[in-house]
Backbone:
C-alpha cells in the first residue's frame, strides 16, 4: 500500500485484482469457498485479513458471495459487487470474474503507461516555469529600468509583462503546488474509482484516446463473455444483461436493462458487433464469431495503447513543455527587439 492510501478502506486496483484472482482460483477449482477463504485469511495480514474475516462470517451465515460483498461497500466498489451478482445469478461466476481480472490488468497497465508518459513533460514545465519567473522577471525589470532612466515611453507590452512577473513572483509557488496536487490526485486514483474514471481518475479523461481505449477493452470483455454464454445456449436476454453488467460499460448496462431481447442505439455498439448481436437474437450460431470479434477489439485496444505510449510523451512535451518554453523565449527576446526598434 502506498503512502497516499494510508487510512483508506477501499481496495486499490492491485488489492482488488489480488482478491479477484483469489476468487477465480476458488470458483474454477470448485473448492469450498468459505473453507478456502478461511485458510487464506490465516496467512494474510492487514486490510486483506480483516476483509476476509468479515466475508467469511457473512458466508457462514448463509449469505451469497454478492450479498457478503454488499456488507462491505466501503471496500468493494459498486461496479464490482454488481459484476459478482451478475455472475452468480447467471451461473457463470468463473467466466465473469476472469473477464473482470482482464479488465483490471488493462486499467493498471494503461495507468502505468500514462504515468510514465506524463512525468517528463511535467518536469519540463516546472523547470521552464522557474526559468520564466527568475530569468524572465529579471530581464523585464532591467528593460523597464532602462526605459525609465532614459525617459523613454514604456511599451504597453513591457508593462503587461512587468505586472505579470510582479504578481507571479509573490505567488510563484502556486503553479508547482497545483502540479503537486494533480500528481497526488493521480496517485490517489489508484483505487476502485478507476473503474468508473471518477475522483482523481477523471484526469485520464483529459488524455486524448484514453476513453476510446477503455471502451475497446470493455467491448472485448463484453463480447468474449457473450460468446461463452451463447455457446452454452444461455437465453439471449439473460446473456446480454449478465455480459453488460460484467463489462462495466454504462451504455451497455443501460441498453440491456431497457430491453428484453432487442438491441437499441443506446448501446452505441460498433456496426459489426451490433450485426452479430441482432443475429444472436434469432438464435443464430454466433458464439464463435463473437469470440473472434472479442480478440479483434482487444488487439485494437492494445494497438491504440501502444500508439498512446509513443505519442503521449511527444504531445505532452510539445503542447505543455513547448508552450511554456515558447512563452519563456518570447519574454526574453520580445522586449529586446522592441528596445532595438525604439533605439533605431
Residues:
Amino acid at each position: 500500500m502506498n503512502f497516499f492510501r494510508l487510512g483508506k478502506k477501499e481496495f486499490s486496483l492491485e488489492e482488488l485484482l489480488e482478491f479477484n484472482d483469489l476468487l477465480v482460483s476458488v470458483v474454477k477449482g470448485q473448492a469450498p469457498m468459505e473453507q478456502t477463504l478461511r485458510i487464506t485469511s490465516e496467512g494474510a495480514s492487514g486490510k486483506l485479513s480483516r476483509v476476509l474475516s468479515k466475508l467469511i462470517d457473512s458466508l457462514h451465515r448463509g449469505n451469497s458471495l454478492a450479498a457478503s460483498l454488499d456488507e462491505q461497500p466501503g471496500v468493494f466498489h459498486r461496479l464490482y459487487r454488481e459484476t459478482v451478482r451478475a455472475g452468480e445469478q447467471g451461473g457463470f461466476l468463473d467466466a465473469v470474474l476472469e473477464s473482470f481480472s482482464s479488465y483490471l490488468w488493462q486499467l493498471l497497465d494503461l495507468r502505468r503507461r500514462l504515468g510514465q508518459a506524463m512525468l517528463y513533460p511535467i518536469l519540463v514545465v516546472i523547470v521552464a516555469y522557474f526559468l520564466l519567473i527568475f530569468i524572465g522577471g529579471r530581464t523585464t525589470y532591467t528593460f523597464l529600468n532602462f526605459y525609465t532612466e532614459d525617459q523613454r515611453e514604456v511599451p504597453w507590452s513591457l508593462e503587461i509583462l512587468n505586472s505579470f512577473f510582479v504578481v507571479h513572483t509573490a505567488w510563484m509557488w502556486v503553479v508547482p503546488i497545483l502540479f503537486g496536487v494533480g500528481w497526488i490526485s493521480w496517485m490517489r486514483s489508484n483505487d476502485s474509482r478507476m473503474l468508473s474514471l471518477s475522483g482523481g481518475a477523471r484526469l485520464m479523461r483529459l488524455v486524448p484516446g484514453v476513453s476510446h481505449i477503455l471502451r475497446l477493452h470493455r467491448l472485448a470483455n463484453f463480447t468474449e463473455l457473450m460468446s461463452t454464454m451463447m455457446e452454452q445456449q444461455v437465453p439471449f436476454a439473460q446473456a446480454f444483461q449478465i455480459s453488460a453488467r460484467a463489462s462495466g460499460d454504462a451504455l451497455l448496462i443501460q441498453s440491456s436493462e431497457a430491453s428484453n431481447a432487442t438491441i437499441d442505439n443506446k448501446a452505441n455498439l460498433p456496426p459489426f458487433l451490433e450485426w452479430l448481436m441482432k443475429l444472436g437474437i434469432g438464435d443464430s450460431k454466433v458464439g464463435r464469431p463473437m469470440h473472434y470479434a472479442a480478440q479483434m477489439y482487444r488487439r485494437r485496444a492494445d494497438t491504440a495503447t501502444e500508439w498512446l505510449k509513443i505519442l503521449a510523451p511527444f504531445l505532452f512535451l510539445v503542447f505543455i513543455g513547448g508552450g511554456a518554453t515558447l512563452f519563456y523565449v518570447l519574454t526574453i527576446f520580445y522586449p529586446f527587439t522592441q528596445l532595438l526598434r525604439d533605439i533605431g
In short: The chain has 13 helices and no strands.
